[in-house]
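About this split. The held-out portion is used to measure sequence recovery: a designer receives only the structure tokens and must propose an amino acid at every position. Recovery is the fraction of positions where the proposal matches the reference. Here is one held-out target exactly as it appears in the evaluation file.
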């Protein structure tokens, strides 16, 4: 047994490293960035991040190739799933006003390696989002000049026929990204002012599209003469909703900006709700107008709205739409280039990514290195990849981030407040560190004897007193008192939050299994009916039982910031919807995703795990250590001793005991 334990020790230590949590300081408002963004700024950032090429380009692409006029339903489904995820982002953004978005939220609740992989995917998500919007911007501008730019590039520069790549290098798209990166590097206020200008123009154009478009609407375009309302059926609607997720990925820029908000506790939830509502309304209404103006099968996927007005004989309206679309795409470019370097900065600040990206310009208060390097990488992607491949790959990273953030909400909601020895909050920004009354004798002596008991820090002593004094009111993560007589023997001995953590993992596994059976059971897997139904029942019961067990535990009630309603139901529903939409994506998207994850693991194990600040904090040498000794009388005595190497622990223990007894004798 001893040999087995010794052999497993390295694996145990590795698991502890991979799952260590980020330590948060008590002062959550302290930052090296500049807090200057108001609620209006955050709202316009959210609107600008969502209402861009998805409105002017993606609506035409998905309506023509995937859904038809039922794209309206696809946007409703995608918007609902995004709303559930937005609740989770709003809670974290208000509760933990630090940059990093999904990466930060996962780090403080799930573990380090999972946070790195989420951050790694969010980086790719933002790079793809910016590159896709740049290509859409270029395509729109090119359509105004009758594709003269494309023809010139293919004839005089380069042309290739490679799968997954564009037919020609889009120099214009790469150029706009380089220019936008230059402006972003001037500081957050410059970015906000530019976003205000472009967002205002874009919203005015959207209002014009809706008013004039409904005047030109022809209901016959939804009849069976033109193919019907849902020509691709339910499968097409669900597949379209997965792609339509691209439209709503921008709202997480609000959470990424929380470290630069003046009052993130109020601004982040309000801005998230307003911006998501405006964006969803815009997508649904514009999709309605577009498919009523012209038949869905005749839409131009590159510039659907502008082309629709041209074909109806209103060329001047098409020009207005083209100008509005360019302004809207500019806002998305700004938002992608705004949030991407801040996520890179957060990872570098924690030591998980290269430290050069953690440097903040002392004048502009922005991570200039991250802005310029990743702006150039984004421009390179826009140069060679086509829009369809980029959009497909974008959805899976977004859905994965949403899933982990939803899981993190459940874990953190049922996790007890913990404080580190330095008084910093390790898992919650609202540690209960209120002063307690003097400890009584029964609280300080060992339960079964009058032996002295030592504590590594004074906060450990306070936690023991608070834990023993709160026998009547159960803390977060513990089984509710009502269910103690029924489930106490089974669950009562578990650590606070332990059962919830296992249940969250079960929810994710059962959701994946359930979605695989629903999506592939009757076709690819060719399951018989009895097997199909049995698996559905088993995985559904596992999902529901896990939700029930979580509900039987006490949640946190001390937070004064926005909280997701109906926890754990809302985050669990978000997890299920996100995973189901991931199953609707193309298998090639999963292959690219797997390759990117493999590259991320190589970076983490090659650099991140060795330079993690949480890991370095654990390895910091300490010449002296303080111990708090509880005497039988209830007195608390501090002793100081030198820390010995691992081989000298026995000698150190022999030296410590007389010191404690000597204090007791002197008293």
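Reference sequence for scoring:
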């Amino acid at each position: 047994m001893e040999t087995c334990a010794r052999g497993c020790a390295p694996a145990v230590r590795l698991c502890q490293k991979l799952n260590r949590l980020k330590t948060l300081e008590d002062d959550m408002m302290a930052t090296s960035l500049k807090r200057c963004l108001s609620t209006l700024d955050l709202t316009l950032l959210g609107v600008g991040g969502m209402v861009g090429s998805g409105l002017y380009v993606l609506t035409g692409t998905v309506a023509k190739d995937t859904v038809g006029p039922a794209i309206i339903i696809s946007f409703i489904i995608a918007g609902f799933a995004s709303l559930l995820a937005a609740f989770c982002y709003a809670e974290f953004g208000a509760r933990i006003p630090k940059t990093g978005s999904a990466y930060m939220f996962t780090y403080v609740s799930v573990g380090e390696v999972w946070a790195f992989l989420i951050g790694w995917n969010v980086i790719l998500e933002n790079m793809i989002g910016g590159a896709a919007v740049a290509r859409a911007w270029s395509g729109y501008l090119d359509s105004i000049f009758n594709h003269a730019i494309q023809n010139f590039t293919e004839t005089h520069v380069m042309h290739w026929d490679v799968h997954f790549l564009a037919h020609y290098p889009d120099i214009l798209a790469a150029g706009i990204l380089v220019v936008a990166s230059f402006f972003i590097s001037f500081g957050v206020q410059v970015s906000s002012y530019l976003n205000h200008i472009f967002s205002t123009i874009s919203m005015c154009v959207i209002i014009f599209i809706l008013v004039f478009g409904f005047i030109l609407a022809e209901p016959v375009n939804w009849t069976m003469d033109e193919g019907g309302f849902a020509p691709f059926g339910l499968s097409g609607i669900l597949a379209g909703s997965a792609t339509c997720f691209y439209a709503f990925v921008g709202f997480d820029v609000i959470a990424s900006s929380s470290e630069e908000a003046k009052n993130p506790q109020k601004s982040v939830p309000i801005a998230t709700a307003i911006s998501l509502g405006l964006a969803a309304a815009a997508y649904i209404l514009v999709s309605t107008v577009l498919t009523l103006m012209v038949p869905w099968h005749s839409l131009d996927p590159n510039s659907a709205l502008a082309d629709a007005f041209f074909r109806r004989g209103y060329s001047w309206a098409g020009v207005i739409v083209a100008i509005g679309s360019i302004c809207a795409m500019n806002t998305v470019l700004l938002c992608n280039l705004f949030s991407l370097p801040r996520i890179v900065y957060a990872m570098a600040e924690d030591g998980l990514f290269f430290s050069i990206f953690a440097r903040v310009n002392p004048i502009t208060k922005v991570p200039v290195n991250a802005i310029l390097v990743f702006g150039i990488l984004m421009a390179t992607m826009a140069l060679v990849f086509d829009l369809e491949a980029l959009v497909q790959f974008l959805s899976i990273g977004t859905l994965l981030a949403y899933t982990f953030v939803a899981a993190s909400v459940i874990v953190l909601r049922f996790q007890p407040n913990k404080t580190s020895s330095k008084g910093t909050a390790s898992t919650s920004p609202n540690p209960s560190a209120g002063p307690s009354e003097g400890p009584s004798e029964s609280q300080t002596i060992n339960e079964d004897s009058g032996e002295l008991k030592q504590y590594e820090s004074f906060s450990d002593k306070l936690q023991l007193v608070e834990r023993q004094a709160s026998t009547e009111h159960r803390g977060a993560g513990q089984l509710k008192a009502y269910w103690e007589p029924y489930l106490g023997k089974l669950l009562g001995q578990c650590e606070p939050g332990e059962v919830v953590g296992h249940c969250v993992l079960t929810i994710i596994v059962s959701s994946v299994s359930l979605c695989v059976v629903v999506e592939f059971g009757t076709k690819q897997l060719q399951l018989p009916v009895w097997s199909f139904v049995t698996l559905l029942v088993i995985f559904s019961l596992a999902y529901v039982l896990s939700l029930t067990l979580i509900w039987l535990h006490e949640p946190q009630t001390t937070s004064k910031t926005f909280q997701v309603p109906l926890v754990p139901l809302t985050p669990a529903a978000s997890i299920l919807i996100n995973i189901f939409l991931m199953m609707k994506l193309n298998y090639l998207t999963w292959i690219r995703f797997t390759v990117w994850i493999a590259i991320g693991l190589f970076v983490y194990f090659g650099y991140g795990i060795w330079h993690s600040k949480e890991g370095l904090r654990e390895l910091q040498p300490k010449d002296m250590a303080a111990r708090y000794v509880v005497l039988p009388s209830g007195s608390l005595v501090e002793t100081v001793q030198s820390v010995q190497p691992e081989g000298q622990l026995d000698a150190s223990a022999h030296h410590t005991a007389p010191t404690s007894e000597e204090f007791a004798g002197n008293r």
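Annotator remark: Residues 419-459, 464-472, 630-638, 642-667 have pLDDT under 50 and may be disordered.
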